[in-house]
Each structure stands twice: as C-alpha cells, then as structure tokens.
Amino acid sequence: MKTIVSIALLFCAVLSWRWMNQSAEKKTALSLCATCPPGFELTEANECQLRTLYQQYESGKGDDAGVGGLKTALPKVRDGFTPQQIDLGRYLFFDPVLSKDGTVSCATCHNPDKGFSDGLKTSVGIKHTNLKRAAPSLWNVAFYKKFFWDARATSLEDQMTGPLYLKVGTP
C-alpha cells in the first residue's frame, strides 16, 4: 500500500508541476471519477465491490472444489478500491511522464486496442530500444499471483516498480 501512496503522491506532484507550467488558457483541473467501472458496485464506504454471476458458485471447498469439468477454482477477488483510486490508476497507466525519458506509458506496450499487448515479436522500450521479450496481455492480470516472465514479483504493486525503474536495454 505504501508503494501505491508513493506513486499517487508522485503523480500528483507531476500533475501540479505540469498544470503550473501550462498557459492560462490550457489550465484545467484534474478531477477523478466518483463512480465505479462496469461490473462493480459502489458501497456506502466509497469502495468498488465486484459483482459477478461467478460469485454465486462455491469454489475451493472439500473434495469437489471448483467449477466446471476441470474443477478449476475461481480466483480471489481484489476489492476495496475507491473510484478515485481506480481512476488515478487509469491516469497513471496512460501517462508517459513517469517513464525515464517521458516518451512511453504502460499503454505503449499494453495497448487496449491490441488486447492490452503491443502485437510485436519483442517490445520496444524508451529511446526505441528493442527489448528481449514481448509485452504479455493484461487480461485478468488482477487475478495473477506471479508477475514478469520469471515470476519475480508477487503483487501488482511490486510488478509496477519494475518497468517504472527499468534500465534501458534490460528485459
């Protein structure tokens, strides 16, 4: 959680600096969304809770655990984020200002129009550096337990620091 707060504060500082350095006619206030994304319900505590039909199924108990022919267990849901935290994450995902040279964002390699990947054999990093691996799709990434190709991160928060501090030319 400390990492999220640190990144949020960094993002706010960068936005403030950008806003202060804009001309008067370009200045706009940043406002974060107060509603949850589709599939989530806003609680009285201002938290987005996932609402899906899959929540009706028991999963992970006894010898007959799981759903369907393969009896696969459903992943644990990560709830409890405010609409503002979710919206801030969206801003960070698409903003290149956090990259080392200010030219790429998460969405550069994880383009929503390309299945949250980049469609390339190997991804291209800052300064047009060819990386050693392709960008994996981010579909269902909230349910992953391991991140990166070598599984070195165990949370989205840990994973996020990798590309943020990545050196040019490293995978």
In terms of topology, how is this protein built?
Blueprint: H1 2-20, E1 40-42, E2 48-50, H2 83-94, H3 106-109, H4 156-164
Give a short synopsis of this structure:
26% of the residues lie in helices and 4% in strands. The protein contains 4 helices and 2 strands.
Assess the beta-strand content as a share of residues.
under 5%
H and E order: HEEHHH
Helix content: 25-40%
Provide the number of structural domains.
3
| Rg (C-alpha, Å) | 19 Å
- Biggest sheet architecture: 2 strands, antiparallel
At the fourth level of CATH, the homologous superfamily of the largest domain is Cytochrome c-like domain
Describe the structure.
By secondary structure, the protein is mainly alpha-helical. The protein is 26% helix and 4% strand. It contains 4 helices and 2 strands. A two-stranded antiparallel ribbon has the order 1-2. The radius of gyration is 19 Å and the shape is globular. It starts with a helix and ends in a 7-residue tail after the last helix. The model is unreliable at 1-17 (pLDDT under 50).
Keywords:
single chain; 171 residues; mainly alpha; Cytochrome Bc1 Complex, Chain D, domain 2; 3 domains; two-stranded antiparallel sheet; 4 helices; globular; disordered N terminus
